[in-house]
């Protein structure tokens, strides 16, 4: 059992952190490593799960999520926007060619992300001018696991929409 420290200015003890598995894993360690170096007496308990529970009832200290506003009793702050990138591997482009417009995607093998909570396939959110529009695609692959989607894109099987957080590494290589 963890015992709270007595000093008010000391940062110590357990810290329960939750975040989405599908995109948060790629960024949490760099932040957590620095935090642990600065506050070695804190014991992080990190739970990555795409399910959005009740953070108040679950006694979460710090939670990260994408999308809709937080539940009652939770103070929310926007940290950063999530950039979405339409990606295809050179092998895909060599085999199927490159689409020359969003409309041309209907004739291509695309991946779609199934929302882990609602079970619905999410549309691609594409900025056209100053407006973000939902663009539905016919999915050649549908998954609720972002790493599997990245694998399919890198293998040249599909064109996919990846988050900048998880897609940046493979895009750079």
Task: Please explain how this structure is put together.
This protein is an alpha/beta fold and 173 residues long. The protein has 2 domains: 1-79, Periplasmic binding protein-like II (D-Maltodextrin-Binding Protein, domain 2); 84-172, D-Maltodextrin-Binding Protein, domain 2, CATH 3.40.190. 25% of the residues lie in helices and 27% in strands. The protein is built from 4 helices and 10 strands. A 3-stranded parallel sheet has the order 2-1-3. A hairpin with a 2-residue loop joins strand 7 (124-128) and strand 8. The longest helix is centred in the first third of the chain and has 18 residues, at 21-38. The protein is elongated, with a radius of gyration of 20 Å. The mean pLDDT is 83.
Explain briefly what this protein structure is:
This protein is α/β, with parallel strands linked by helices and 173 residues long. Helices cover 25% and strands 27% of the residues.
Alpha-carbon Rg, integer? 20 Å
Tally of alpha and pi helices: 4
Compressed to H and E, one letter per element, the order equals EHEEEHEEEEEHEH
Average residue pLDDT? 83
Q: Based on the structure given, which CATH architecture of the largest domain is correct?
A: 3-Layer(aba) Sandwich
SS-based class: alpha/beta
List descriptors.
elongated, three-stranded mixed beta sheet, 2 domains, D-Maltodextrin-Binding Protein, domain 2, 4 helices, alpha/beta, 173 residues, single chain
Helix/strand layout:
Layout: E1 13-19, H1 21-38, E2 42-48, E3 62-63, E4 84-87, H2 90-96, E5 110-114, E6 121-122, E7 124-128, E8 131-135, E9 139-143, H3 146-154, E10 160-163, H4 164-172
Parallel strand pairs: 1-2, 1-3, 5-9
Antiparallel strand pairs: 4-10, 5-6, 7-8
């Amino acid at each position: 059992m963890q015992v709270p420290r007595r000093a008010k200015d000391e940062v110590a003890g357990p810290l329960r952190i939750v975040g989405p598995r599908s995109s948060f894993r790629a960024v949490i360690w760099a932040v957590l490593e620095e935090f642990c170096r600065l506050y070695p007496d804190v014991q992080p308990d990190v739970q990555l799960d795409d399910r959005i529970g009740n953070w108040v009832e679950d006694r979460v200290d710090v939670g990260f999520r994408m999308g809709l506003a937080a539940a009652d009793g939770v103070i929310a702050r926007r940290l950063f926007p999530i950039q979405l990138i339409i990606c295809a591997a050179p092998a895909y482009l060599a085999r199927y060619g490159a689409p020359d417009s969003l409309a041309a995607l209907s004739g291509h093998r695309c991946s779609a992300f199934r929302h882990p909570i609602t079970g619905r396939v999410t549309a691609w959110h594409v900025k056209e001018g100053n407006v973000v529009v939902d663009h539905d695609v016919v999915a050649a692959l549908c998954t609720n696991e972002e790493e599997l989607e990245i694998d399919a894109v890198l293998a040249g099987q599909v064109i996919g929409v990846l988050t900048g957080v998880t897609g940046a590494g493979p895009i750079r290589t």
